[in-house]
Amino acid sequence: MLSNENILYYAFCIVLLCVVIFLIRKVASCLIKSVITLLVIAALAWVWFTFLQH
User: Fold this and answer.
1) HEC sequence for 1-54
2) What is the pLDDT along the chain (54 residues), one digit of tens a residue?
3) How far is CA 29 from CA 19, 40, 42, in A?
4) Backbone angles phi, psi at 2, to 5 degrees
5) What distances in angstroms separate CA 42 from CA 11, 20, 28, 45, 46, one per listed residue?
6) What is the pTM of this model?
7) How far apart are CA 50 and CA 42, in angstroms?
8) Cα dihedral: 49, 51, 53, 54 (round 10)
9) Torsion angle (degrees, nearest 10) of CA 30, 33, 38, 44
């Protein structure tokens, strides 16, 4: 049988899991945007130094 302590423990674990998933999604999206930005900057720098600089 489930007691009050067990129910509170499981509820806390579920809330904690939701918070962790939310944080991972935010951090992952920020990292993906950063990686894409760095790739674009690197590509622009390569084009500049390869073709446009005299």
Assistant:
1) CCCHHHHHHHHHHHHHHHHHHHHHHHHHHHHHHHHHHHHHHHHHHHHHHHHHCC
2) 567 777 888 888 899 889 888 888 888 888 888 889 999 999 989 888 888 775
3) 16, 17, 20
4) -85, 130
5) 47, 32, 21, 5, 6
6) 0.56
7) 12
8) 140
9) -160
